Structure formats: C-alpha cells, structure tokens
C-alpha cells in the first residue's frame, strides 16, 4: 500500500508524530471531546441545588412545590435531554461534514456551546429551569456532532501507523472532562449553591481557546482532494501534517481511491443499510456503540455521588472519592492510547467490557452484603473504579475509531450517523431510566 511505503511501521510512535498532528489532536479534543465528558459529570455534584432551584421556582410561580416523583422526573429530563440533543447532532453530522468539511464543522458548531453556556449561566438570574434544560439540550447537539466529526477528522489526517494512537486521544480528553467536572465540583471551588450556574457554563472556556487556534490549521487532506478536488490545498495540508515524507505517494493512493469511487455518490443512511457489501461492518458498528452505552457507564458518571452514598461512604468524603476516580479515567485512557497499535482494537474492546462486567457483578454483590459486612463498601468503591478504568481503556474511544476505519470515504458520513444515533438513544435510555431504578432499589 502507498501509505506503508510513505510511512513504514517502525514500532516507535514518536517517529512520525509531527507537532502539527499532535496540536490538532489536542485542540479538537480539548475544545470538543472534553466537553462531552464534562457535561456527563457536571450535573452530578450540584444535583441537590438544581432540584432545589426547580422546586423554589415552581413554588414562586404556582404557590405549591413539586412532588418527589415530579422533581425526580424533571431532574431526569435535565440529565437525559443531553442525550436527546446528542441524537439530533449525530443525525445531522453527515450533512455538516460534507458541506463544511471536518475542521469546518468543528469550528462552525462552536457557536452552540456559547449559546448553551449563556442559557445555563443566566438561568438562575432569570428564574427559568427551562433555560437549564434547553442549554443541556444544545450542549448535547454539540457533543453529538463532536463525537463523530473529531474521530473522523483525526482518522483522515493521521498516517496509517498512528491512526489508532491519534484516534484514542479524544477518549483521553473525555476522561479529562469528567475529571475536570469532578474537581470544579468540589465545595472549595464551584460546588457551592451560588456557583452552580457558573459551573454549568464553564464549557465556553475550552471552546473559546479552540476557536482562536484551530482555524489556523488545514482541513483534512482526504476531504480536500476526494470531495473538493483541490489538489493544491491537499498538497499544502499534507506538507503541514507530515514531516519529511514522500507525500506524492499518499496523494496517488487517495487519487486511486477517488477513481474507484468516481461512480459512487456519498451514501445516505438508507442506502448504507441496504448495501449487502457492508452489512457486517454496519452490524459491528451498531453492536459496539450500543454496548458502549448499555454497559451502564453513563449511570456511573451521572450519579456517582448517589452510588457512593448508597455504598455508605460518609457524605463529607463523597466529593473527594468521586474526584479521585477521575485520575483513573485519564490513566486508563493513556494506557489504551499507547497500547492500541500493539494489542489491536478488538482486545481493548473485549478486555474493557470483560473488566466492566466483572466489576458490575462485584458492585451488585457488595451493595447487597454491605449491610452485614461493613468492609464491602470499600469493595463497591473499588468496583466503580474498575468499571471506569475498563471503559476508558478501550470502549470509550474504539467504537468511533473503527467506524472511520471500516468504511470508505463515500460510506463514512452515513456510518457515523448510524453509530452515533444508536449510541445516543442508548445513552438517553440509561440516563432517564436509572434514577427511577435507583429509587425503587432504595425502597
């Protein structure tokens, strides 16, 4: 293959890792992927304050407060509406990346974060729970787009032997986003009642930094050549992203793929689902994306404090225990990033899910036995850490990476729509149903 001639595999990741590649991977992940992790965890620590705000607002409007069930429903909607927005974002990503390009989509959709941050930041001043819910919905749209377009962008600018490494950088930043929300949620920082609107709106900061720097970097060379037919811009982009390499060989490889697809237009979702030649690829993408969410990881991230409280952890220590799990997320993500090219995609996925399954059984057993055996509360905390580590080491990022690798240029946007929509539907199901299951289990 031309790419193998261009960049031979030497087993040393840094051999062909240019500063430009690393900078783009960090910028796109910092300003987009990290927000997904942050928004997953940000509603955890201020949950009591948000519920109290909802109840007081309804009392001021109607004279009577909300019942416990209605308040739980309203808060569940606040949590899970993020996934509804994500579903909408995943459905439009194909149209956006075709029209604006990969980098262009990341840049243009930044406006959604500023709108959402403003709504959530001023919600208490305006006395409007609706602004919180709408803001969460808009951040979900942005995350739904970002979770698809960032891996697509990085997969197309990376040489073959670095595709796995760069493809998992977003998953590290997802863990970093969760950790950032846990740290900022400490009572000493933004965990006080008066600070929760600011806590929700902090998302505008990384997006602003990304918006200032990312436009200076080139678009995906594959997009420029195969969809825009701009050879000059393609050469410029490749020179930017590659070190001293024979970029002509890579251009010829892309042109060969372009000729093979010259009679094939960009597929719609319906045509992709009816294409027998990619049936197993579509099934694989569906399974890994559904499995990623039905593993229950979002229940862990959304309701970590409640889980630790039920496990018997003293209330003053819960926020620090929760923040400590964030370090594990980042470490596990880094391990996955540096081992994926040696171990492969499948072992990281299977191993991660196996670890999560074992720890899920462990936390169930420990919660049952902790009434009689006090030390089991620490076992349950360890199992929560194990679930998070198992997820971040593989299942957190591999589904988005393999979606880019399993499909040609013409099939890729539709494949991301299928995988993303299934991912977000599963995300919504877990986020909405879990608090009711938790209440029933407590009763």
UniProtKB/TrEMBL annotation:
GO terms for cellular component: sarcolemma. It comes from the Eukaryota. Belongs to the major facilitator superfamily. Sugar transporter (TC 2.A.1.1) family. Glucose transporter subfamily. This is Solute carrier family 2, facilitated glucose transporter member 5. It is a multi-pass membrane protein. InterPro entries: GLUT, MFS_dom, MFS_sugar_transport-like, MFS_trans_sf, Sugar/inositol_transpt, Sugar_transporter_CS. Keywords: Cell membrane, Membrane, Sugar transport, Transmembrane, Transmembrane helix, Transport. PANTHER family: MAJOR FACILITATOR SUPERFAMILY (MFS) PROFILE DOMAIN-CONTAINING PROTEIN, SOLUTE CARRIER FAMILY 2. It is found in: Cell membrane, Sarcolemma; Cell membrane. GO terms for biological process: D-glucose import; dehydroascorbic acid transport; fructose import across plasma membrane. Its main location: membrane. Pfam families: Sugar_tr. The chain crosses the membrane at residues 21-38, 73-98, 105-125, 131-153, 165-184, 196-217, 280-303, 323-341, 348-369, 375-402, 414-437. It catalyses: D-fructose(out) = D-fructose(in). It comes from Scophthalmus maximus (Turbot). Residues 25-443 form the Major facilitator superfamily (MFS) profile domain. GO terms for molecular function: D-glucose transmembrane transporter activity; fructose transmembrane transporter activity. Signal peptide: none annotated.
């Amino acid at each position: 293959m031309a790419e193998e001639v261009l960049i031979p595999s030497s087993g040393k990741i840094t051999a062909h890792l240019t500063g430009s590649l690393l900078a783009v991977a960090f910028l796109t992940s910092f300003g987009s992927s990290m927000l997904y992790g942050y928004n997953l965890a940000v509603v955890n620590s201020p949950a009591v304050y948000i519920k109290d705000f909802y109840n007081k607002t309804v009392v001021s409007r109607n004279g009577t407060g909300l019942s416990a069930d209605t308040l739980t429903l309203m808060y569940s909607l606040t949590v899970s509406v993020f996934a509804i927005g994500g579903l909408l974002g995943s459905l439009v990503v194909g149209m956006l990346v075709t029209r604006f390009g990969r980098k262009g989509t990341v840049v243009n959709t930044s406006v959604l974060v500023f709108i959402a941050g403003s709504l959530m930041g001023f919600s208490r001043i305006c006395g409007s729970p609706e602004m919180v819910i709408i803001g969460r919905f808009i951040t979900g749209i942005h995350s739904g787009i970002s979770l698809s377009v960032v891996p697509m962008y990085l997969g197309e600018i990376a040489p073959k032997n670095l595709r796995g490494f760069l493809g998992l950088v977003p998953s590290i930043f997802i863990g970093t986003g969760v950790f950032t929300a846990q740290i900022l949620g400490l009572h000493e920082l933004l965990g006080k009642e008066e600070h929760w609107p600011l806590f929700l709106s902090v998302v505008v900061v990384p997006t602003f930094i990304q918006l200032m720097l990312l436009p200076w970097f080139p678009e995906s060379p594959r997009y420029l050549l195969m969809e825009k037919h701009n050879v000059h811009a393609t050469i410029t982009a490749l020179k930017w992203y590659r070190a001293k390499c024979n970029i002509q060989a890579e251009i010829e490889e892309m042109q060969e793929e372009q000729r093979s697809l010259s009679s094939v237009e960009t597929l719609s979702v319906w045509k992709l689902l009816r294409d027998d030649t990619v049936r197993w690829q579509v099934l694989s993408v569906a399974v890994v994306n559904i499995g990623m969410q039905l593993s229950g990881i979002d229940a862990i991230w959304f309701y970590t404090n409640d889980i630790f409280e039920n496990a018997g952890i003293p209330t003053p220590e819960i926020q620090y225990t929760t923040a400590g799990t964030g370090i594990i997320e980042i470490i596990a993500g880094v391990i996955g990033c540096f081992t994926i090219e040696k171990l492969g995609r499948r072992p990281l996925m299977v191993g991660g899910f196996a670890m999560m399954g074992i720890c899920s059984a462990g936390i169930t057993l420990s919660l049952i036995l902790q009434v009689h055996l006090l030390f089991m509360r620490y076992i349950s905390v360890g199992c929560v850490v194990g679930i998070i580590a198992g997820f971040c080491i593989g299942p957190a990022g591999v589904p988005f990476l393999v979606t880019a690798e399993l499909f040609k240029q013409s099939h890729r946007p539709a494949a991301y729509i299928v995988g993303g929509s299934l991912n977000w539907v599963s995300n919504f199901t877990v986020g909405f149903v879990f608090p009711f299951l938790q209440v029933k289990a407590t009763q």
